[in-house]
Automatic annotation (TrEMBL):
It holds the Pfam family PhoX. Gene3D superfamilies: TolB, C-terminal domain. This is Alkaline phosphatase PhoX. SUPFAM superfamilies: YWTD domain.
Length: 389
């Protein structure tokens, strides 16, 4: 197998020569022309690292909110190991940041509550007794979908405020779940699968706002361009995995983050360093970013993982490895580093999410400075600054 660099050079060469190995005709033009290219970002480059190892653009500041196996400052709650996917929810004048724990058997999820001025007021568990809770997604009705990443994994719906008990939703399928994103226009939930031959799914609930019943569908297609959906026959109990139940299901190399905005569902695949864009109205799949289609210099974004977006239309993509950055993809198709974390070389950045007013960005370093696989050295951060709206 060729190295990623050799494959990138090969793809560039065939594009320039009019080759048809990867794509043909208009399909190749679409894939080659549209993916984001490196350029200057709206905030400028990351500057020298602060005391926490954060390199941030001018005007931005950062702080550590919590550390794994230590009490969250100002509370009696001990923060979980291996912090992963996360999201923010409004809570009166303040807000709540929820975070999964990607460890076996005791994974679950926790939350930190902030007051109107950003002060931590409490921290608590919202999900217990689950395993390898990786990413997930927020719902329009104010709950957090926490996804288990194993072959029989479930989606759990949790209350960010900690008042209601969590519920599992087997109708959303038992597979190696990664992330979820809600589409309120079509009243569906998109789901990624972290397998090297995984699929992209959507769940159509019988009643919007209630996820206990509905239909799981899988995306069918052969690449960028028009796609369609087909029902998965046995999403709950199976002898054949969900990804192998429908002929023609499109394969994705390690599904990761998922984010929906303005008719487009963006999702990432780590095996080929791609950010996909699914146009829900047109039922069309395209590439927002592909490191093999960067035409000048080395790709700034590698190890694509969790993804979120700002009200400005900017996408923020976290790296699993790479050089521990969160990269920005702007609406005009520029990809550029936004922040970088030094001294966490064996970790990954997880759980990027904005506060409800868009002024603060939260994320974690899952394995911290030690890189220990159990995630006992995880860090959760907050970055504050002049994010554009």
């Amino acid at each position: 197998m060729s190295t990623p660099l050799n494959r990138r050079v090969f793809l560039r060469t065939t594009a320039i020569a009019g080759g048809t190995t990867a794509f043909t005709g208009a399909l190749w033009h679409q894939a080659f022309a549209d993916p984001a290219q490196p350029g200057a970002g709206p905030y400028g480059p990351p500057l020298a690292a602060d005391a926490n190892g954060l390199q941030l653009p001018k005007g931005f500041t950062g702080r550590v909110v919590a550390r794994s196996l230590q009490r969250v400052p100002g509370t009696r709650h001990t923060w979980h190991p291996a912090p992963d996917g996360g999201a923010c929810f409004g809570d009166g004048d303040g807000w709540v940041y929820v975070s999964n724990s990607e460890v076996p058997l005791v994974g679950g999820a926790s939350a930190v509550r902030f007051g109107a001025d950003g002060t931590v007021t409490s921290a608590y568990r919202i999900l217990n007794g689950t395993t390898l809770n990786c990413a997930g997604g927020a719902t329009p009705w104010g709950t957090w979908l926490s996804c288990e990443e194993h072959d029989l994994g479930l989606v759990y719906e949790t209350d960010p405020l900690g008042a209601k008990s969590a519920r599992s939703h087997p109708a959303m399928g038992r597979f190696k779940h990664e992330a979820a994103a809600c589409d309120p226009e079509r009243k569906v939930v998109y789901l990624t699968e972290d397998q090297s031959d995984g699929c992209f799914y959507r769940f159509r609930p019988k009643t919007w706002g209630e996820l206990s019943e509905g239909t799981l569908e899988v995306l069918l297609g052969t690449g960028t361009g028009p796609v369609r959906w087909a029902q998965v026959p046995n999403p709950r109990l199976w002898t054949t995995p969900t990804r192998n139940q429908v002929s023609g299901a499109m394969r994705f190399d390690g599904g990761e983050g998922c984010f929906y905005a303005s008719g487009i569902c963006y999702f990432t695949t780590k095996g080929d360093n791609r950010v996909w864009s699914y146009d829900a109205a047109a039922e069309r799949l395209d590439l927002a970013y592909d490191d093999d289609l960067v035409t000048e210099g080395e790709p700034p974004l590698t190890g694509v993982d969790n993804i979120t977006g700002a009200s400005s239309g900017d996408l923020f993509v976290a790296e699993d490895g790479g050089n521990m950055e969160i990269n920005l993809i702007t609406p005009d198709g520029t990809v550029t580093p936004f922040l970088r974390l030094l001294g966490h070389d064996e970790s990954e950045i997880t759980g990027p999410a904005f506060s409800p007013d868009g002024s603060r960005l939260y994320f974690s370093s899952q394995r911290g400075k030690s890189g220990f696989v159990a995630g006992t050295d995880g860090y959760t951060y907050e970055v504050t600054g002049p994010f554009r709206h």
